[in-house]
Write a structure and sequence with these properties.
- By secondary structure, the protein is mainly beta.
- The protein contains one helix and four strands; from the N terminus they run H-E-E-E-E.
- Strand 3 and strand 4 form a beta hairpin.
- The protein is globular and about 40 Å long.
């Protein structure tokens, strides 16, 4: 497997080749974050979603795994 960690441009280049997305879903709004990575439900299906956790500074988050839908 190849793991990709990067910004919007890196994700945009690599998502076509990806078979799996490991995502950390964090509750919050960050106006300074200029880009968002959108997971399209027509391409990806969520196969794992953990329970919600709370970080030391109070942020709520969960882990999710998405697999690419094959025709």
């Amino acid at each position: 497997p190849v793991w990709v960690i990067g910004g919007a441009e890196i994700y945009r280049l690599m998502v076509v080749q990806a078979d799996c997305i490991e995502r950390t879903d964090v509750v919050g709004v960050w106006p300074e974050a200029a880009a968002r990575f959108v997971i399209r439900s027509s391409v990806w299906t969520c196969v794992l979603s953990s329970e919600w956790h709370r970080s030391g500074n109070g942020l709520r988050y969960r882990y999710q795994r998405y697999l690419k839908i094959r025709p």
